[in-house]
Design goal:
The complex is a heterodimer of chains A (416) and B (110). Chain A is mainly alpha-helical and 416 residues long. Helix content of chain A is 73%, strand content 0%. Classes of the chains: A mainly alpha (416), B alpha+beta (110). Chains A and B meet through helix 19 and helix 20 of A and helix 2 and helix 3 of B.
Chain lengths: 416, 110
Amino acid sequence: MDVAATAEAVARASYGKLVAFLAARTRDVAAAEDALAEAFAAALAEWPAKGIPRAPEAWLLTVARRKLIDAARRRQTGVEAEPTLVLIADELVDAADGDAPIPDERLRLMFACAHPAIDAGVRAPLMLQAVLGFDAAAIGSAFLVAPATMGQRLVRAKARIRDAGIPFRVPEAHELAERLDAVLEAIYAVFTEGWADPAGTQPSSRNLAEEGIWLGRLIATLLPEAPEALGLLALMLHADARRHARRSAAGEFVPLAAQDPARWDRALIDEAEALLLRASAMRAPGRFQLEAAVQSAHAARRLTGKTDWSAIVQLYDALLAITGSVVVAINRAVAIAETRGAAAGLAELEPLADDARLAQYQPYWAARAALLARAGNAAAAAAAYQRAIGLESDPALRAFLQRELLHLHDVRGSTR
Amino acid sequence: MQVLLLMYQDEKAMQKLPREEYGKLHGAFMAYVDALKKARALVGNHGLRPTSEARTVGKDAVLDGPFAETKEQLAGYFLLEVPDMEAALGWAKRHPSAPYGAVEVRPVWT
């Protein structure tokens, strides 16, 4: 392996670990990132000539530590800064010198990134940057925010961690579940940003689905006794198992019901099922386990040839009770239409119509259109399809909705 | 705030679009305008005729063609009223012609 590839591999595996280790002691994520960036630059300059060090992580940590202390000295001249600097330096020397592995403190870093004092919208971007080293431009383009704006948000969030005394620690048992939810939600947000673009027309967002799974694997490894962490990973793996089946050879969108189960990834499904089984044995159901269970019910079609919709309705009932989310309510209405008919599904959608947030939410209009079409109300279905088409940003999904709209006209024309 | 969405695309390539695809694009356009109106976000929009019909007036001459000869040309605009830049980017991403070129988002002086 050449030096650049090794450096990249080390960066990938170690970046978050080193940021976490440095920042946990200074609570200064930005300074840790800067120091580490300089260390990686130094590695790329020195390793080709001198060879890759025996312990690349420790090498990087030693250089980053030096940069961190230099930077701190430049910033705060004065006697009062010295004791902290010495403390940091000693601790870091101990860690970098020994052959003992550098302690993995990424879990603490993730809890700091998803702390309640950090704006919910910036938690996922912050995690991408601090744990994986993404730059603001890449994160901004994935989350559809201008790079400069995203940069400012990240800077503000890191300043808050430093100045508001946000601790780098794993919360106590009594608050762990709630705080973990915020971490898992941020990871899921990373995944769903990438999931919206399965064709991979935008390399930045396709990677996000993978990065979300990577973070999910990390937290499931660090917290193997947390059923919701396992549930989240199971949910993402189930969804990812269907990635290739979601598009035809011609690049057209294929809805779940029309997908060929043979194109689903069996290894991913098996892994997800095993995780879900482990999680359910802990007898503490939660949002992510329930969502994974819905996916699991869909995946069962590859074995049974049909979908158990009444089981899915029950799972959505439980999910709705926990989350009260309109998104869940929409999915539940669609499932109810499968068990009790389109009219029953529409009746479930009706009370949501007043929710202002849905005015620009494409899946609501697409679901409504499909149910109206099935109920035989072609005119109302056409209007809803029209709305969904205007709100969709994925060209493949837009083309699918247009085909459905056209098909609606065919059906209407033939019944006349 | 008001923003102007400027659609840039290769007009020669657009003229060569297969009839069916052009029909789909047109349909998507209608739906997009409709969605903007329902969201009360649309101030106004127009498509522009080909750059071959453009004339450019400079300091001391009138020239045939657009101001700048570029690979992609200005094909139309949407003037939107939106709460913030993020909402503007959301609408720009939904723009049916975005996959055919680019949509520039420009805040308007007010």
